[in-house]
Specification:
This protein has a domain of 44 residues. Helices cover 44% and strands 13% of the residues. The protein is built from four helices and two strands, in the order αββααα. The longest helix has 16 residues.
């Protein structure tokens, strides 16, 4: 893991902040991308919104494969084949 990056930015009159270049680079965001703010008490975490969405989905889906009886790679391959056959049959 890289060393923590600490930087500052000024809040402009409309509440806008320019995210420093090195922070944008570490978050892998650029113009047009979205970021997610996670606020807790007196601090906030800024994350690449795509990464946040994936992590949230992974957390929500944790254990679902096992509950569905998918316990091996072969089970997953069989399910994919079944779903593809169903889609192609439409």
């Amino acid at each position: 893991m890289k060393d923590p990056l600490i930087d500052n930015a000024k809040i402009m009159s409309k509440g806008q902040v320019t995210i420093p270049k090195e922070v944008r680079s570490r978050l892998k965001v650029s113009e047009g991308d979205r970021v997610t703010f996670i606020c807790d008490g007196d601090y906030a975490i800024v994350m690449n919104a795509n990464i946040y969405a994936i992590k949230t989905l992974q957390k929500a889906m944790a254990g679902e494969a096992e509950r569905a009886g998918l316990t091996s790679e072969e089970d997953i391959i069989a399910l994919c084949r079944e779903v593809r056959a169903e889609i192609e049959g439409l």
